Amino acid sequence: MKKLDFQGIEKAGSINWLPDSKQIIFAGNETGKPRRTFIKNLETGVQRPITPEGVTVILVSPDGKSFVCDADGKRSVCSLDENTSPRPIVGLGETDIVRNWVADSRSLYVYVYEAGMLKVSRLDIATGRREPFKEINIADKSGIFTKPGIDITPDGKSYIYSVRRYLMDLYLADGLK
Question: 45, 2, 48: which is closest to 26 by C-alpha?
Fold first, then answer.
């Protein structure tokens, strides 16, 4: 086991392994500065920022060349090449939730929850072409108090979804003094 030293970072989070298993990228902030994304080589200990301030990592692509990032509140794609700007994700709607990369590293699984259905699509990040993947009807909608979530493997062969419910019993007491 090896303890990670984030060298001057106040709060590190959204830690993602790169495919080489020798590096991680993470979001964090240096004292008094906004959050941004850093890359850290675990063998050498060298750590450096790879995005401008305000751009933070969310999810690394399977090929390790790019990542979904939050750029001032908007989902974008960033390259691990530190000299590029975040690119908006073509075709991503305001209600779409980015869930995972497809194994090809060119598309994302995105979903919306509407009318009791989880509607999952594959979204090509370059063209915005959307291909339906799966629709899951939540049969019993009682007590649902947050949007259901879904996790999908990059190959699309497995998924799991969750529904949070808040159920209670209501009793009527009559004739109490």
Answer: 48
Token digits of residue 153 = 């493997």
Sheet holding 87-88, edge to edge: 55-60, 66-71, 74-79, 87-88
pTM for the structure as a whole? 0.84
87: tokens are: 């690119």
Q: How many CB atoms lie within 10 A of CB 27?
A: 22
Return the amino acid letter for 27: A
CB contact set of 42 (below 8 Å; sequence gap of 6+): 2, 4, 22, 23, 24
Strands (E) located in 8-153: 13-17, 23-28, 36-41, 47-49, 55-60, 66-71, 74-79, 87-88, 97-101, 107-114, 117-124, 130-137, 149-152
| Chain centre to alpha carbon of residue 33 | 23
C-alpha span between 68 and 53 (Å, rounded): 15
Measured between alpha carbons, how far is residue 81 from residues 5, 17, 41, 89, 156 in Å?
23, 16, 15, 18, 28
Question: What are the tens digits of pLDDT across the range 75-132?
Answer: 999 998 766 789 999 999 989 999 999 999 999 999 999 888 999 999 999 999 999 9
